[in-house]
Each structure stands twice: as structure tokens, then as C-alpha cells.
Amino acid sequence: MAMRVNIAFIVLIVAVATIGGFMFGYDSGVINGTQEGLESAFNLSKLGTGFNVGAILLGCAAGAFVAGRLADRIGRRSVMLIAAVLFVGSALVAGAAGSSAIFIIARLIGGLGVGAASVLSPVYISEVTPAAIRGRLSSVQQVMIITGLTGAFVANYYLAASAGGSTAPFWGGYPAWRWMFWMQVIPAGIYFLALLFIPESPRFYVLRGRDTEAEGVLTRLFGAEEAKRKVVDIRASLAADHRPRLADLIDPTSGRIRRVVWAGIGIAVFQQLVGINIVFYYGSVLWQSVGFSENDSLKINILSGALSILACIFTILTVDRIGRKPLLLVGSAGMTVTLAVMAGCFSTASLVNGALHMSDNVGLVALIAANAYVVFFNASWGPVMWVMLGEMFPNQIRGSGLAVSGFAQWIANFGISVSFPALAAGIGLPVTYGFYAVSAFVSFFFVKALVHETRGRELEDMEG
């Protein structure tokens, strides 16, 4: 007998959960276009700018680590509600900050929310969707991340254009860059209110021994008969003797960390070592450094965001047909080539009055390669990493596996982002982008060796 799936209800739940992805993207992308304002307001050095930009990422690492464990205690939806509150508070304080220290604290708080949303939105989606379309619906998370980034780029562009520059006075006499942060309050408030209308994850209910409530949610999702069967399957997949804990990440027979945990940490870290967030966090500064105006640089950011969304739509249409692993392999190969081309282009640039300049032709090649790189990333590693982290771990270790993988992902993000200004000024853009290209090359072989396909498998069938 075919399973009755309440698609309308599932789509509604996914739409709400992925607003967390939008906030993740917006909070990460809003910094792109505010660096000039931060440097002038707080008198920052290059390293200081890097730390103000990257501070959010330390919060993200802590948020991802704590959220995965906390979600096993108080629920997926409850932690997402806390994240929404953190988004609002961070936006208000970051925009009003009178010092670099206050700004960094505000961004750390926002990072806690971003880290929590980054790991919980995909796991929540994977826990309420049928296996046959799970990859497709989980991929929506990346679309919303990119939509959030693009939304931040568009808002920053129009605020700067309306004020006459990011540091020019705007509403209330406050500079436009402060309003770039305050604008986040609107989507954060919507996220909080929308979360009140979706149910808790049925797998969390079973985890806490609340089978009746789990069956109620599953009945709304899949019908009464399937709900009873799923509760039994979920219960059977959980170890009977204890609740999930970090120690479960160690295989009791070998005494070593489970292979699936290393696979999760690896794909999380490689997603950052290829340098994607340099494009998102420093895109405006990067393109200005090679001769584009601030106005043109902000437009290039919007173009990159639009291409990213189209690439993610491709993944949504193909991830449940092609599979996760083939997409990762194609993405690694494509990013290796495009990053190498960018490194080559930057190697031809000359230094004029402290700024990099490329010929028009080379500049065009660099721009095309950068956008091709963004397309390869967002058709593969961007969405697929989140899909896999949400589904690859067995029920017993899903919260803990997400905690350590999410923590590793954000620490790698922090290292790449904070080091970029100093590396670009020190060893130069060609070597910096060469490192990202080598990382993409190595990621191909990592996926081939350690990552297992999860397409079409029920979460209760995942092996650790």
C-alpha cells in the first residue's frame, strides 16, 4: 500500500525551517559592503578588519556545537526559536555598536544563532520528509542561504546608493552601514513568528519517550498507518540503554572515532577550505582591489548571488536522481579548474599606488572564472554538504555527529576568513587562491574514498 504523504504540510514546514537558512545567509553576507564603515568607525588595521568580519564565525562554531547537543535535550524547534531571538539581538547591537569590542560581541551572539540554524534546519527537514524527496527538500536550505546572502547584498547596495556611500549619513543621521545591520531585524522577526506554527521533529519526540506526540506529527505527515510503523522503526533504531551522548561517536568495538564521523567532519571542513566565503565576505573589497568601483563591486555580488540560486535549483532537481556523491565529485573537479584560473589571473596583476590592477581582458577572465566557481560550488558542495550532514548519521549519533561536524565547519570558515586579508597582503592573491584550488583537488579524492551515497535510504537505515 502506497504511503500517503501530506505534501502541502511538508512544504509549509520546510519553508519555515529554511528561513533559518535565509538568516544564516543574511547574517553572513551583510558584512560584505560594511568593511569601509567598520574601518573608519573603529580605526581598524587589516588584521582588525579580518577579526571583526570573522568574529561571527567563532560564535557559529560554538552555536553549531551546542545546538546539536541541545536539540537532543529540548527539541529542534525550541533551539531554532532561541536562534531567532539571537538574530534580532545581534542585529540591533551590531548596528548601534560604538566600539569594535561591542561590535565583536554582537557578531558573536549572531554567530550562535547562525551556527544553530545551520545545523538544525537541515536535520529538522531530513527528519520530517520522505526519503524519496529528502535530498530535494534539504537542498532548499542552500537556496535560502544564498537568497539570504543575495538579499543582504541587494539591501546593502540600495542603502549605500540611497545614502551616497556606505559611510554616508542615512535615516536618523546614522551612516548607511549601520542600517545594513538593522535591516536584519525584519526577517529575524518573521522567522521567530513562523516557527510557532510548525511541529517539533517526531524523531525528537521518540528520542524523549514521547511516542504519542511523535505519532501525532507523523500522522499529519504520512497518515495513521505509516505513522505507527515509523514510530516502531525510529524506536528500534535508537540504542535502548541510554540517551545520545558524545561518547557514541566512538565505535565501542574498535575504540576509535567512527568512520562516518570522520566523513562528516571532512566534508564540513573541505566545504570551507575551497574558499567560498572569501567571495561572499570580501567580494566587494576583492573586486575593488582589482579596479572595479564600489558600485560595480556590489552589483557583481548580486550577480554571484543570482547565479548561485540558479545552481542550487539545478541541485534540487537532480540530487535525488543523480545522488549526493557524484555531485560532490563534479563540484570538486570544477572548482579545482576555476580556482586555478583565478590564481593565474591574479598572478598577472600589478601593484599601482597600493592597489592591484589587471588588464581589462584578464579582469574579465577572472570575473568569469569566479562566477563559474560559484556555480560549481552551489551546484554541489554548497547544498549537498548540508543534505548529507542532515541525513548521513544514524539516529543515535545524529545530534552529536552534527555538533562536531558543524563545529569543525565553522572553525575552518573562521580560519579561512580571518586569514584572508593578511594572506592577500602578505603572500598575495595568486598563492592564496592556489591553496583553495589545491584544497578542491584533494577534496575530490577524499569524497571518493570516504563518503558513502545516502540517496533514497531511510534515516533509520543509516549505518555508523
How is this structure best summarized?
It contains 20 helices and two strands. By secondary structure, the protein is an all-alpha fold. It has a single domain, classed as Growth Hormone, Chain: A, CATH 1.20.1250.
Mean pLDDT: 85
Widest β-sheet, arrangement of strands: 1-2
Order of helical and strand elements: HHHHHHHHHHHHHHHHEEHHHH
> Which runs of at least 5 residues are low in confidence (pLDDT < 50)?
none
Query: Within the CATH hierarchy, at the fold level, what is the topology?
Result: Growth Hormone, Chain: A
- How would a crystallographer describe the biggest sheet? 2 strands, antiparallel
How many domains? 1
Distance between the termini: 30 Å
CATH superfamily: MFS general substrate transporter like domains
What share of residues are in beta strands? under 5%
Strand segment tally: 2
The percent of residues in helical segments reads over 70%
Helix-strand makeup class: mainly alpha
Number of helices: 20
CATH architecture type: Up-down Bundle
CATH class: Mainly Alpha
**Radius of gyration, Cα only, in angstroms?**
22 Å
Structure description:
Helix 4 (46-74) runs parallel beside helix 6 (100-128) and helix 5 (76-96) runs antiparallel to helix 8. The protein is 77% helix and 1% strand. It is globular, with a radius of gyration of 22 Å. The model has no long low-confidence stretch (mean pLDDT 85). The protein has a two-stranded antiparallel sheet with strand order 1-2. The chain has a single domain, classed as Up-down Bundle (Growth Hormone, Chain: A), CATH 1.20.1250. The chain is mainly α and 464 residues long. The protein is built from 20 helices and 2 strands. The longest helix is centred in the N-terminal third of the chain and has 33 residues, at 131-163. The chain has helices at 7-17, 19-29, 35-42, 46-74, 76-96, 100-128, 131-163, 176-182, 185-195, 202-207, 211-222, 224-237, 259-273, 276-289, 294-322, 324-347, 360-378, 381-391, 398-426, 429-450, and strands at residues 350-352, 355-357.
